[in-house]
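User: Predict Rhodanese domain-containing protein's structure from this.
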Amino acid sequence: MIKLFQKFNRSLFQFSKEVQLKQSETQGKGFYQQQIFTGCLAEYAYYIESNKEAIIIDPLRDVQPYLNIAKERGAKIKYVLLTHFHADFIAGHLSLQRETDAQIIMGPKASAPFVNKVLNDNEYLKVGKIKIQALHTPGHTQESTCFLLYDEDGKQHSVYTGDTLFLGEVGRPDLAVKSDVTQYDLASMLYASLRQKILGLPEDVIVFPGHGAGSACGKNISSGYSCTIGNQKKNNYALQEMDQETFVQLVASDLPKPPQYFFYNAGLNKTNQFQDLNLILKKANTKLTSAQVISRQGIQIIDSRNSISNGFIPGSINVPLQIPFAHWVGTLLPHDREIVIVCEPGNEEQTIMRLSRIGYDNIVGYIHFEDWKSSGNSISKPIELEVQDFLKRSKLAQIVDVRTKEEWGKGILKHAQLITLSELPQNLEKLDKLRDISIYCGTGQRAKIAHTLLIANGFTRVQYCKVGYDDIIK
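Assistant:
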């Protein structure tokens, strides 16, 4: 009898200090599986084991959690499977191969120097008592492949869909565009893939996606960590009966702008040129003096503290760890500048880890804000306002709403300029440095990021509301 249940176990995943949860655990006929969730990226990786042979599907760069599971269970990691070349994180296939001598396996159309074996469409891979079948499902990317698990009785049990199929959504088709392949071409491929490879699976087959709600790899991914094919056929708009033209318009139109780091990551994941994570941690986990920070020209200072009420280093950008840190850093800041981290004591490794997951490896060290301040250096003080003060001080100011287009549909403040946070760096010329600027968002967090971003770009008359739009209009 198959058991599928949610079970949390943090003890295995303290390597990065971020909560990486054993989201679900499956004991099937002839196999064992863990689904591992990393909240900062809304990413699911999978550990599957049969007869002491294990595979990892879509691992992150920090591979210690997967090694811990295998060690605890006395298993050998034999294969690493990648559903596609990822854009939103640096994958951990090379690190796992170095640690375990595992073979790296991808599906058709995957070409990279590290791939040990390319599975043909419908080809099987034997793992202990079970089989994994490659289902080539181009659309999100041309090499996208789902992996279908057959238990020891030969029953189709679950499908690992990567970024092809999410809960309530499908993968966006605009991240692998080439000169001769448009997002509409890829959307057409996705239409065929879903209908030829996924919809025909038994309705009780479990869908295990590559991402959950909050990921930018899909327009509007539903919450949850798994589902059945039957449920998705009922509830996923993209799986409803429609012609190809209608599907393409639904999937390929009105896509939000992808984070700029996606294209850098996708290219890097096709090479074997990125550094070993342990070397990055060793180099980056270096405490700097304020003099050392000041002496470095052209650095990017990233402040990961959750509160900057006591001040922040001039020129630094505050992106709190408590929000989707990697997403916002990768959206707003370039990857090719040297980075100095400002963090709370004890959060050094976590901040470094989250940056390195998305390929931001140029970290030269960290400094604590109190050390900077106690050395007599200048600081910037944020102007954080409660609702009444915000409304009063905004009467003659430029009001900037940095929420998303979907949020704007719920209402906006009178005279507000609509510049979503993800597009703020490209729209600074729309703001007047000689006027007060009042910023608000949905919770106060994005407004705080925008506040430090504007200060770093020479705006001096900036203030933001500590709470969100719904509280402002009460």
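The chain is about 25% helix and 25% strand.
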